[in-house]
Backbone:
């Protein structure tokens, strides 16, 4: 998190880890693990920006109060260590989102992000934009990202339509976390994007495809434990070494495919992080189920066999 | 709301209105309209039980605090006028649901209901049952209903599987609001149901089908303004006059089909209620959009042409 | 199949069995089993009309030539034994459908039925109606039925919209096989239907719901082996004995639910018919897989425990 | 179509046009347009291989006889002009597919391709592989391609699972036409592919993404009229000029997005081809609807404004 200059001036690029929320064994939020978590990301994974209280962070399973406490701790502990902390403030309820956006501004978050509400689904790009605008209005100085993840929300509005003239509605607009497989829509977002926007890709298993299409960076949960490898993928891509980039991407796909066959949900993902990082992030909250130890262990072993270097 | 006897002893039957949440023109909750609303339902529609803070009530667009205030007011104003007030306490977050369930017990609600969480979706009946149990545990004396609405939540776990041995987990279990079109699952719920349970149907447009399958009652939004007609449908059905029951059902279908062709979402439904009842329930909250006046008026006119008697 | 009077004059009611196609052990069509099959249906199941070469008959896995040979044999063997033989002539290709429709007229079928093409899906009711009309035109004297089964075809055009003024396009139109769960659409079809039309329901597991909504009859695969029981359901319904009708419907649901949990596809269904009837209808064709003997046997045992009377 | 060497020895790469089927104004197949069509593709679009009787070719709307006649004419006219003619022989019916595969071998097709049957859907990779094997068996010397297009067929079996040990079942197996957006599955297919296989991508609007992932070539309908531009995209990609490749991809996306907003189905696509090529391919067959002239003209104008160079 930059200390002096307005974060708005730095364009967000590279890898961003979508963080898990640490819980105690009693299932309460566990602030004490946040500091070590940040150190792990910077020191072991080469990760310099985080997206907190998102899907990976189980935000929809948290109360508004818990989200505030977590956001505050993430910002505090990231200070001087992370480039940017993006706080996800999207909720089903506009009122709750506004409360969190306003709070994010107070605690010095670098940016906020908002997912489409998914219980009542916006029927058009205009409705969605109006909803996003109402959130952005209470934190007008914070860089604003739209978070698109149609497989989870069921909201399939083309992002390109959301971007159309969006700075007229949201002057603080700065980009998109695009977690979808429609790369025509993605490409058009890149093509339309302003120089100070970041079009970030969110399906870790096919990042290379999005890089080819012009992605400026990526946000994902696997970068918590495989950021060190994916950083090499990006480096290879930037040097024009597609063969090397592809090799790393295929390894990630092999890992994720293996995990998928065993059953790979957020609970498994979290336990895999515990195994690989040594952190104690606990189990997920209901309705996400905890992962049997053996299952996470098996995936961790696969990880080590695919990436023996680390 | 029964004054003396435990509500648990009365089996819920007949029509239950899923109430809209009244808002002011500024978009804040409007408690002053709740009293007149209850009078309208009892006096004009013959409705004696209500399901508050559900989907129709835009609960997911409300903050937890707003839901508490509303629940309290509904219970207070319903006292002596309504047979039962079921307070829906389902949220994406288990913590929030527990807080609302505990509050419902304190304010004297007759029952609580819980929808399946839909952002993170329970993958099996067992996971869903564990989630429901965790909510029920904090309000063990309140009759408990599961609210099934797969088209909205995307949670398609067969309800019959949820019911299996559920009283071992939730001794206060009392029934289901079944808002789905799978009448095999519905029939099996009726067949399996205990004498003190209520299996209530929630797709107003095909209630007659569910009655034939053994529904004990119905919960729906259209009973807010068409309860008087649907009460006659139920009466005809109970007397064995299927022709008359069918005639009324077909009229409801004609109305809803007309509305659907114009575009019929919760915002339209709410404005239609305003038109037909004369109440001032306001507009919905984002992301549900307000309904153009002309559209609701057109549906209201259709209503009057289909049901000229009232 | 009526010998003298034009079939068009008799309104189709009651149960219609959607027949399986008999195959030899080599996977070729087996005409020799058709005679015994018809006898079994009339004598053991009380079934007097059949729907051949439909989904249950694996029509889409047959060549046009095979469908012709089968249709001819069904009509020949049904003569004097069955009231009506409806030959399904729907194909992906309009040309093929027309060839089969023309052939059905030549062989003396009582009626034809056409499913919506599902590879290229009609985008509107008008497109679908035009397609149906083009088929009907080559067999203008044959009663024509539209076959609606959206879960299989993915064509979700409301049937009520298909029916609108359809006799202007298809003077021979006589009804619908409605195999969907949208009973609002179904009810509106019943409400709109002309006196000489038959609105037939096709989801066996919830027939009672459709009867309440006014169904004139039913077409289904389970009537091949459970027609004798479902005939009693219909009789009870017609006498106003809903409790008895419901009891039988619940038994059918118990059976089908049991089968579903074991895995219930067309291959299982066919083998179950072999077990229960003693006929030798063979295995299905790829891509439908044959059913392990033990699985069909287990469902057959369940059948006998649920319906011990037979 | 190579004259001497067995086609099997040449690995299929580059662009392959999925051809439209020419119809007369009476809606019959129009063989006379096939010669000029091939000349147009080679001379104006730089296309040297074709995929005939596929989805773009409306194969499912053709009779088996028509498909044979067409396949024969395509092969005859392509001789000496095209590198490879892949004849798609997939049908709903295995019998029909086998008849077409056998015929393709007789007429000297360079390869055959088979889509997953979509009325009865294979439930697992093994079932699908068995189906494909049964087709391949009747034309064992012809290179065999699996055609994956889940959005159309609804068959979502991971292609990587289909490829597993497939040469044991189908020794003539040579590759995949992958028309899906799951680039993890696609990447794993590339990673697993044998040197003599071709993993071809089929979503024209995001080809660049697939190239980054290692695609060996592409099959699509837009290469009929935009092959000349997409050839430049591939050339730029191969030279490592991602900026130029992206520029062309974005132009294609702009065109297709424009068309999509106007309504872009196979009928529109075919009429657009007529406009841009000057060929007379006629209208599509029901249930695909013909395209209003003005709509195709508008898209053609967009094409010329985006690609002024041609």
Residues:
């Amino acid at each position: 998190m930059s200390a002096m200059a307005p974060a708005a001036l730095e364009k967000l690029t590279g890898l961003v880890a979508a963080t898990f929320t640490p819980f105690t064994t009693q299932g309460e939020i566990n602030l004490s693990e946040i500091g070590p978590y940040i150190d792990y990301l910077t020191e072991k994974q080469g990760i310099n920006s985080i997206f907190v209280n998102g899907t990976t962070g189980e935000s929809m399973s948290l109360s508004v109060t818990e989200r505030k406490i977590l956001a505050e701790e993430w910002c505090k502990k990231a200070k001087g260590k992370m480039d940017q902390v993006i706080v996800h403030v999207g909720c089903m309820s506009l009122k709750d989102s506004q409360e969190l956006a306003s709070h994010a501004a107070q605690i010095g978050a670098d940016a906020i992000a908002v997912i489409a509400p998914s219980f009542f689904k916006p029927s058009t790009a205009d409705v969605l934009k109006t909803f996003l605008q109402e959130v952005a209005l209470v934190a007008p100085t914070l860089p604003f990202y739209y978070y698109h993840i149609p497989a989870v929300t069921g909201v399939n509005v083309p992002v390109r339509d959301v971007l159309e003239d969006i700075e007229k509605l949201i002057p603080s607009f700065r980009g998109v976390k695009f977690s979808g497989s429609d790369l025509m829509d993605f490409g058009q977002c890149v093509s339309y994007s302003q120089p100070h926007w970041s079009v970030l890709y969110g399906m870790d298993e096919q990042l290379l495809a999005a890089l080819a299409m012009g992605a400026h960076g990526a946000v994902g949960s696997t970068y918590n434990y495989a950021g060190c490898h994916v950083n090499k993928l990006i480096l290879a891509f930037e040097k024009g070494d597609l063969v090397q980039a592809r090799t790393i991407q295929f390894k990630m796909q092999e890992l994720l495919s293996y995990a998928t066959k065993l059953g790979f949900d957020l609970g498994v993902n979290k336990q895999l992080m515990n195994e690989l990082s040594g952190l104690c992030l606990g189990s997920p909250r209901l309705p996400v189920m905890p992962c049997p130890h053996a299952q996470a262990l098996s995936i961790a072993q696969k990880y080590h066999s695919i990436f023996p270097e680390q």
